[in-house]
Design goal:
It is a single chain. By secondary structure, the protein is α+β, with helices and mostly antiparallel strands. It contains four helices and seven strands, in the order βααβββαβαββ. Strands 1-2-3-4-5-7-6 form a seven-stranded mixed β-sheet.
Length: 168
């Protein structure tokens, strides 16, 4: 039996929420992915993320990971700027799932008029840092002690990707 994944992407639908939430919970449990402490309800998550540019990576109808965009501001001047969320199920780490998700998210973001994507990454999350660099994000700075996780102040590394076709 082959361990090779046949990774495909498709739009995320509400029926995917159970699998998406499970992968999100795995990320939360690592303490490396987010300041969140629990998975929100679908309704809360849905309101916080843009309605487009929501994707899942699948192999044989198994959801391997997901990616979505959220607005960085309600001000119209920032309408082409979005924040990236990308999560891969622990069983599928280091198998190319994150890269496939990010490339598709970038493509969809540009089709939807986004000129800048940004991400905040904990310094300890070396896998996410490497992924962002692989797909063309650049490190732009550190927000020191920007928030607490379990009572410990955490830095957040800022990464940005500017489109070469939108907003130039």
């Amino acid at each position: 039996m082959s361990n090779t994944l046949h990774i495909m992407t498709r739009p995320m639908i509400s029926e995917d929420w159970e699998a998406v939430a499970s992968i999100y919970a795995e990320g939360i449990a690592t303490g490396l992915a987010t300041f969140e402490k629990q998975v929100p309800t679908f309704e809360v998550w849905d309101k916080a993320h843009l309605k487009w540019c929501r994707i899942v990576a699948v192999d044989k109808n198994i959801i391997l990971g997901w990616a979505a965009l959220s607005p960085v501001s309600g001000r119209c001047v920032y309408g082409g700027v979005a924040e990236v969320s990308v999560y891969v199920g622990q069983a599928y780490n280091r198998k190319g799932v994150g890269k496939v998700l990010m490339k598709e998210l970038i493509s969809q973001s540009e089709k939807n008029g986004f000129w800048t994507l940004q991400s905040g990454v904990f310094p300890e999350n070396v896998g996410s840092i490497a992924l962002h660099k692989k797909v063309g994000f650049r490190y732009i700075g550190t927000r020191e002690r920007v928030g607490q996780l379990d009572g410990i102040w955490k830095d957040n590394l800022l990464f940005e990707r500017r489109s070469k076709i939108v907003g130039i």
